[in-house]
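_Full entry_
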Amino acid sequence: MPGNSFGNLFRLTTWGESHGPAIGCVVDGVPPGLALSEADIQPWLDRRRPGQSRFTTQRKEPDKVIILSGVFEGKTTGTPVSLQIANTDTRSRDYANIAETYRPGHADITYDMKYGRRDHRGGGRASARETAMRVAAGAIARKVLGKKVKIRGALIQMGPHQVNRNRWSWAETEKNPFWCPDARTAKEWETFLDSVRKRGSSTGAVIEVVASGVAAGLGEPVYDRLDADMAKAMMSIPAVKGVEIGAGFASAALSGEENADEMRRKGGKTVFLSNNAGGTLGGISSGQDVVVRFAVKPTSSIRTPRQSISTKGKNVEVATKGRHDPCVGIRAVPIGEAMLALVLADHLLRHKAQCE
């Protein structure tokens, strides 16, 4: 089916289903001569890997990546880089009870409406399992961007509970299972999510991703604006229902004076006094931090019975068995980082092709 590729000069195509033998991707447009091995990709996959705490799905996938093509003697050749990850812990029997029913909030019914058939095992192609390959490709994109560009993500809201930005610490995101930049809030989230998990329910989240060191000038007006591609990238992540750049929706409550990112010349450089625009102006990067946030809905797979219909059109109740994330937003943090890396790498190559 179409729609499996993302990007222009730096292009990702993924393939595979949640309960198939493997998932994989092809990354085209990778410049030649980049040092690349499985060891460069694996640490990023380990950040997303399931089953690392009681707060994520207990599916035990090692997510060991192998490079099938595009690398010779430790360096990229300029040809497509193909990656593969085996699915080793599938339990398709957990989904037997939904083979003839549609789970509310899932893509079950729309896949059936579109194709006339669906893979009910773990959601098939609609499963977030596919995002492992985005993270793998994101590791290559970081190589293209170079060490000057730093991309970091954090969970800033779980359910109704937000972090306190006065206590923000990037280092703290590596010390708790939520990628939370606020140690005190992370402790509160433990209690909250335990209660959600024990009652068989789920909750949503908001993730913030920041890219520092991005050069000015990236972005292709009018329809391939940098922020437009960022929004598409984040909206393409399963369960994402909203995206904002910079001040985002909060800018609607600001005055023109408050919202304008004023400028000064200091030390021979242009300095912005604020960053409500989120690092883009007119769809082109300004050299400031690129800031994007996205909202993730509560996991649709819950044990609480919900009203639905069967494939034969009968009214039924559905309770989803199996291993599911009580807050899918937790593992969305490294996915959001990867998608931003893909967008920036693509636009960097596009900028070089036209302007350098």
Notes: The mean pLDDT is 92. The first strand starts at residue 5 and ends at 6.
